[in-house]
Amino acid sequence: MVNIAFANREEAAQKLAERLSPYKGMAPLVLAIPRGAVPMGKIIADALGGALDVVLVRKLGAPGNPEYAIGSVDESGHVTLNPEAEGVADEEYLKQEVRTQMDTMRKRRAFYTPIRAPVDPKDRAVIVVDDGIATGSTMLAALHAIREKKPKKLVVAIGVAPQESIKRLERVADEVICLQTPAWFMAVGQFFDEFPQVEDEEVIRILKT
């Protein structure tokens, strides 16, 4: 039996904002992973007096099973592969999948922030937000991309994740804040009573405010 951890993303964001209160007044840059984490990022950024933007990363799907992530890629083209990737995908497939996902990110960036460049994380406290993670490959890709831009501090803030995934993130981030680390984990949505899909239109509306 799964214990529901949060009523919705709003509750998770409010709890994360409380845990992140030491960053209030430091004008942190809150980077949300679209689409689900963007409403959470807005709540956290407002609570901390920070700026909000998105960090774009895409999972690399397995051959014949695109929902199963074998890795991820960020906007710069940096690829993070899961250990099992070598056994399920050859080099040519991976190259094509990376090209496909890079094209999707270029279109999404133009769609989300058409009239401004991404906010520069250099020398800032950066908080990367997601509602939850499973393997952590997407978050790892985001962290690698941001680290190359030399932030002052790199923080992960997530609602729920398996303990093993948290350990992976702790090797890359300066701080990892996770509200729930259940022993039995199937999917992020199982820990939220309400977990609706966030549409692109809502992301754009939030980024414009």
Provide an overview of this structure.
The protein has 209 residues and is of the alpha/beta class. The chain has two domains: 9-55 and 119-208, Rossmann fold, CATH 3.40.50.2020; 58-112, PRTase-like (Ybab, Chain: A). 36% of the residues lie in helices and 23% in strands. The protein has helices at 9-19, 38-48, 85-88, 91-112, 137-147, 163-170, 200-208; strands spanning 29-32, 51-54, 57-62, 65-74, 79-81, 125-132, 153-160, 175-180. The strands form two sheets. Strands 2-1-6-7-8 form a five-stranded parallel beta sheet, sandwiched between helices. Helix 5 (137-147) links the parallel strand 6 and strand 7 (153-160). Helix 1 runs parallel beside helix 2. It starts with 8 loop residues before the first helix and ends with a helix. The model has no long low-confidence stretch (mean pLDDT 92).
Name some characteristics of this structure.
Ybab, Chain: A; Rossmann fold; 5-stranded parallel beta sheet; 209 residues
SSE layout and pairings?
Layout: H1 9-19, E1 29-32, H2 38-48, E2 51-54, E3 57-62, E4 65-74, E5 79-81, H3 85-88, H4 91-112, E6 125-132, H5 137-147, E7 153-160, H6 163-170, E8 175-180, H7 200-208
Parallel strand pairs: 1-2, 1-6, 6-7, 7-8
Antiparallel strand pairs: 3-4, 4-5
Helix pairs in contact: 1-2
